[in-house]
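Record type: monomer structure entry
Structure origin: computed from sequence
Chain ID: A
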Amino acid sequence: MKADQIRESLVTALSRRRFLRGEFSAEPGVLRPPWALPESAFVGRCTRCDACVAACPTAILIAGSGGFPVVDFARGECTFCGDCARACAPGALDMAQPQPWQLAVRIDAGCLAAANIVCRSCGDSCQSAAIRFRPQVGMAAQPQVDPAACNGCGACVRACPQAAVALIARSEATIAA
């Protein structure tokens, strides 16, 4: 094995701080940039140079824990332009992957429509029409998510005045369902 291959196989997603605190699992809820390699490979390749953060035209990429880039959909949406992946010299972001990421929309109980207040901000901002509103007798229309139509752009997250919309990994969404 080459030294690089050995290094990559030994690298884990743990920061020194998390290791010393006894937090041995991957950081919960961390969303990496689009086209990110699987977590252990991403952490092994990412040099924390912030080239992807600087290249993002919508400024949704920020330096997260340990300096690794994360997505903050409260800042905006992803246009899937690919600038971040093209700026990534170490190859931690790989546009050869079939999809930029596997994210699903989750609408929490804090949704205004659930409190019978008319609000369609998330649906209005969804260009792929993945969030639609089903009329209800005697109450506000309720949001319904079409997971197949959702591309994970995150436009709905910033649009929600209650911060009741989140994007999570599709694997977490299946477990929660």
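Annotation 1: The chain has two domains: 3-87, 103-176.
Annotation 2: Helices lie at 3-10, 16-20, 39-45, 51-55, 83-87, 121-125, 155-159, 170-176.
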